[in-house]
Design brief:
It comes from Rhizobium lentis. This protein is an alpha/beta fold. The protein has 2 domains: 4-285, 3-Layer(aba) Sandwich (Rossmann fold), CATH 3.40.50.720; 289-404, no CATH class. The chain is built from 16 helices and 12 strands. It has helices at residues 13-24, 48-51, 76-90, 111-125, 147-158, 176-188, 207-217, 230-240, 251-258, 266-271, 279-288, 293-305, 312-324, 334-338, 356-368, 380-400, and strands spanning 4-8, 28-32, 54-59, 95-101, 132-137, 139-141, 161-164, 170-171, 173-175, 196-199, 205-206, 224-227. The strands form 4 sheets. It has a 6-stranded parallel β-sheet with strand order 2-1-3-4-5-10, with helices on both faces. Strand 1 (4-8), helix 1 and strand 2 (28-32) form a beta-alpha-beta unit. Helix 5 crosses helix 7 (207-217) and helix 8 (230-240) runs antiparallel to helix 9 (251-258). The protein is globular.
């Protein structure tokens, strides 16, 4: 008989993927909430029949109707979560997994972070404490372009110049599938003690770096920022509700970012046996490369610029190398892919070894090397022409090379 798993918030961004993954792994999933077979709303006393026989409850549901001024005793997220956890223990459920957040702090700027923190405290002192496991989840990305991930993906490609707050704040991305896998591990692994786990990248990155990853993975070029104060950002949030064709930004999300701080996740990831993927690699496949064709097109352009007629082996070697080094996609324009000689206008000086285009050209040179004709040498005229061209293009390259750095 398939183990029974109860999920609340299964219609949300994380919940929908979690429910699908649980079914793929053979669980009998009960979606406690809006589904006809198990109607429930946070704050309700769940039916005992819905809980009996379940191996675990994973609680993702959250009511956004609670305002900043709501007293704790009237906060339905706090009382509703504790009610559900106590009912689960009374029904014999062995594990109750509460989906919290890395914004969970007593002093969090946003209501969401403070509420998650208070729920954690109440669960720790409730009769349900022995079956409770807390999962503090980092910045979730991947899958459908909804929730915070969808908003950031849209913002990152709106313009190469983006007004933004919290650029130096550290964030810890984690893919949607990795979150779902971590939650299932907490729900099913009896060896894990009741404690708090952090599901997030072990090495935090700046929010500015994260936005640049989102932009590059969608095939766009360099992203520049205009730092703005928090008050201006909150005002802009209000304006997004009035301006058409601009993504609406919830002030809660801005406040969450403004107060972001990393949490240690290494031990949690090891206990749950989670090996998190590189976000740039994953997003390049999900957002920018529905097939391998865009990557191959850029690889072909780089090889042709270096004077090679691309072979299948060269294209494969270079495409794999670019992906492995986090350089795919480079974001070359269709014009550059069609007319690779124009890359001469963007090629950086030889000493700019950290330049993305320079690194890509170096890989292209290595990829084409095995098929080169041995003993083929450039003539004196070709060498003079190359040197002269480099000198003439130097001022223009100094200006244009920024695009693909």
């Amino acid at each position: 008989m398939a183990p029974r798993l109860i999920i609340t918030g299964s219609t949300g961004y994380i919940g929908a993927r979690l429910a699908a993954m649980a079914r793929e792994r053979g669980f009998d999933v009960v979606e406690l909430g809006r589904r006809p077979e198990a109607k429930w709303r946070i704050g309700d006393e769940p039916a005992t029949s819905d809980l009996e026989g379940a191996a675990a409850v994973i609680h993702l549901a959250h009511s956004w109707a609670t305002g900043a001024e709501t007293a704790e005793e009237n906060n339905i997220n706090i009382s509703g979560t504790v009610t559900l956890a106590k009912a689960a223990k009374a029904a014999g459920v062995r594990r109750f997994v509460f989906a919290s957040s890395t914004s969970s702090r007593r002093e969090a700027l946003n209501v969401y972070g403070r509420t998650k923190f208070r729920i954690e405290q109440h669960l720790a002192t409730s009769p349900a404490a022995p079956i409770v496991r807390i999962a503090r989840i980092g910045l979730v990305y991947g899958g459908p372009r909804t929730a915070m991930f969808g908003l950031m993906a849209k913002l990152s490609v709106l313009s190469p110049l983006l007004p933004m707050i919290g650029l130096s704040r550290k964030v810890q991305p984690i893919h949607l599938d990795e979150v779902a896998a971590g939650l299932l591990a907490l729900a099913t692994d009896e060896s894990q003690p009741p404690q708090t786990f952090v599901l997030a990248q072990e090495r935090p990155i700046s929010f500015a770096a994260w936005l640049r990853i989102l932009r590059r993975s969608q095939g766009k070029g360099k992203l520049h920022f205009i730092p703005i104060p928090l008050a201006a950002a909150l005002f802009a949030c209000r304006m997004t509700k009035l301006v058409p064709l601009v993504p609406t930004v919830d002030p809660e999300r801005v406040l969450g970012l403004a107060g972001a701080a990393p949490m240690e996740s290494g031990e949690s990831l090891r206990l749950l046996k989670l090996n998190l993927a590189d976000p740039m690699t994953v997003l390049s496949q999900e957002l920018g490369q529905k097939s391998e064709e865009p990557s191959r097109s850029e690889a072909g352009a780089l090889l042709r610029y270096l004077g090679s007629t691309p072979t299948e082996a060269q294209l494969q070697r270079l495409s794999e190398g670019l992906r492995r080094e986090g350089l795919a996609p480079l974001g070359l324009s269709p014009t550059l892919i069609k007319h690779p000689r124009l890359l001469a206008l963007y090629e950086p000086p030889a000493n700019r070894t950290q330049h993305r285009l320079a690194q890509a050209l170096y890989l292209a040179d290595l990829a084409s090397e095995p098929e080169r004709q041995r003993g083929q040498k450039a003539g004196l005229f070709d060498a003079i022409l190359t040197i002269g061209t480099d000198i003439l293009l130097l001022p223009l390259r100094a200006l244009l090379a920024r695009r693909y750095r």
